[in-house]
Design goal:
Helices cover 47% and strands 21% of the residues. It has a seven-stranded mixed beta sheet with strand order 3-2-1-4-5-7-6, sandwiched between helices. It contains nine helices and seven strands, in the order H-H-H-E-H-E-H-E-E-H-E-H-H-H-E-E.
């Protein structure tokens, strides 16, 4: 088990190094499914005109842009621990003229007042945060009562035959392809390990409950390769 400081340092190093090929590898290694998963997450949000949405670990901004493109035109704030990831996001946002504001920040200490947002999302980022519970609690804090958290994340599929195939892909093919394109096989081996270590959906829902969120439910995507976990802040 990695200690917190080591994991944060490793995450910063990895994402600083893969910025130039991050989007390409996301699309290639998921066979284009990551685009579908983000659109699904955005459409799942029950937003009203004028709502504000926070996207934690926004990376290069794909989920933030998918949310900003919803017909109700919400205002989206994208936050990431690694400032270098925000450069590509800013270029995409400028090209589309999207209502997305970017800033660097830590998911375990969100720089926002209580009850600021109608929804908080995070896509493929929470498994890289050592203190998941602190992040979920911070998400709850900045949500208005009745607001929802949307966590899109990989996990090992639950079905035995899919699990067997996917585990081989994860531990062997993903690092090789990631290393070939990025020149950094070690980083993709680390990312594969974080997927294997991430809790099963029922265990993650319990973590959401421990953070003070209620009504947790999970939606399997692409045979359980990815899951969308949703929970809400109680009406205090």
């Amino acid at each position: 088990m990695r200690d917190e400081a080591t994991q944060i340092s490793q995450v910063r190093r990895i994402f600083n190094r893969v910025v130039p090929v991050y989007d390409l590898l996301n699309h290639v290694l998921s066979a284009g499914q990551d685009l579908h998963w983000r659109r699904f997450t955005a459409r799942a949000m029950r937003l009203q005109p004028g709502d504000k949405v926070l996207d934690v670990a926004t990376g290069t901004g794909d989920l933030a842009l998918a949310v900003a493109a919803l017909p109700v035109r919400p205002l989206v704030v994208g936050l990431d621990l690694v400032p270098a990831m925000l450069g590509p996001a800013a270029r995409k946002i400028a090209k589309k003229g999207a209502r997305v504001r970017l800033l660097a920040g830590d998911g375990t200490a969100l720089p926002f007042a209580d009850q600021t947002f109608a929804a908080v999302s995070i896509a493929f980022g929470i498994r890289n945060i050592p203190r998941r519970g602190a992040t979920l609690a911070e998400m709850r804090r900045v949500l208005r009562p009745g607001g929802r958290v949307y966590v899109l994340e990989f996990t090992t599929p639950q079905g035995p035959w899919v699990r067997r195939i996917y585990t081989r892909y994860l531990m062997h093919l993903l690092p090789k392809v990631g290393g070939l394109v990025s020149g950094d096989e070690e980083s993709y081996r680390y990312l594969a390990e974080t997927i294997r270590e991430f809790p099963a959906p029922d265990a993650f829902r319990r973590e959401m409950g421990q953070a003070g969120l209620v009504g947790a439910r999970s939606h399997a995507l692409t045979r359980g390769v990815a899951w969308l976990h949703v929970a809400e802040r109680p009406m205090d």
